[in-house]
Amino acid sequence: MKKNIFLIMLAIIILCVAIACGDNETTSTSSSSSSIGLGSEITVTSGTVGFDMRYVPAGSFAMGSSNIGGNAAPEHQVTLTRNFWMMETEVTYAVWTNVTQWAVANGYIFANAGLQGNGSGNDNDPLEPVTDINWNDAIVWCNALSEKMGLTPVYTYGGNVIRNSMDSNHQITSNAVFNYDTGGYRLPTEAEWEYASRYKDGVSWTPGDYASGATNTNVEATAAVGWYMTGDSHPVGEKAPNALGINDMSGNVFEWCWDRYDVSYYNGGSRTDPTGSVSGPLRIWRGGCWDTSENTLQCAYRNMADHASGGSDQTGFRVVRNY
After folding, report:
1. What is the mean pLDDT of residues 55-78?
2. Which pLDDT band, with edges at 50, 70 and 90, does 31 fall under?
3. What phi, psi does 160 have (nearest 5°)?
4. Residues sharing a CB contact under 8 Å with residue 64, sequence separation 6 or more, in sequence order
5. pLDDT at residue 164 is higher than 90
6. Which CATH class is domain 59-322?
7. Contacts of 89 (CB under 8 A, 6+ apart)
8. Pairing state of beta strands 254-260 and 315-316?
């Protein structure tokens, strides 16, 4: 009898530990050093799914590209003062669904359910990126992921966490307050996105008119790192990563960034931890997609869409968080 009671108690303890470990983070490095640096990686587990994040050190770089011109010019020196972790791939449909199901059960409301890849009959892999979500959905999802992982959400309005991305909540989402330093999950700023896409070693950088991780501007070098003009989206992580070990920054799906778009922002905006224009209905997309030409995969290429209605089968996102 005592043995049976012991076994029952042991099973309960194991179950409790398993439940407690359902959402967690573990950190590893690819080098023999235990310190955080290039190659360092966090694995985030949410229930039965997870994703990896790569360490991005703070620093300065020349943002923009005179070779691209237009709204990617002028080139200008930008300094990022915070180290951060960036998701190794775009948010997959599996991870999106896991967090969204938890979120809805805990009072969150989403305008869009999201698609698995671009929604074609070929997209039967849950490792396809989630698409057809607008910017509002993305920031609300980031808040949900933060709360699910026991972190303080980044996006608030009037001191309250934003948990509703519906059009009826547009006034609140469009005026979201972005707190860099809560430690929660968030969209990258446009500068963070370009910085991570072009990073090599903190001294040399991938040129702005190259795809992320590419060694040239030719078709072969671009195709090695990104999906484009394929007629269909693809599971994440199938192309070569950039120097930080981050995949799909060029191609597969466009990625939402935090910043509002202003065509003249590069001429006079902040040069330290820039966060974009203070007004305007358009938010930044970066990275190109499966259905666009190779020029959209260029690291410094800029695109934009309305944050409430701009979701499409070409658009997804990835998350970052401060280190």
Report:
1. 97
2. very low
3. -105, 140
4. 72, 73, 74, 75, 76, 208, 266, 300
5. yes
6. alpha beta
7. 51, 52, 129, 236, 237, 246, 247, 248, 318
8. parallel
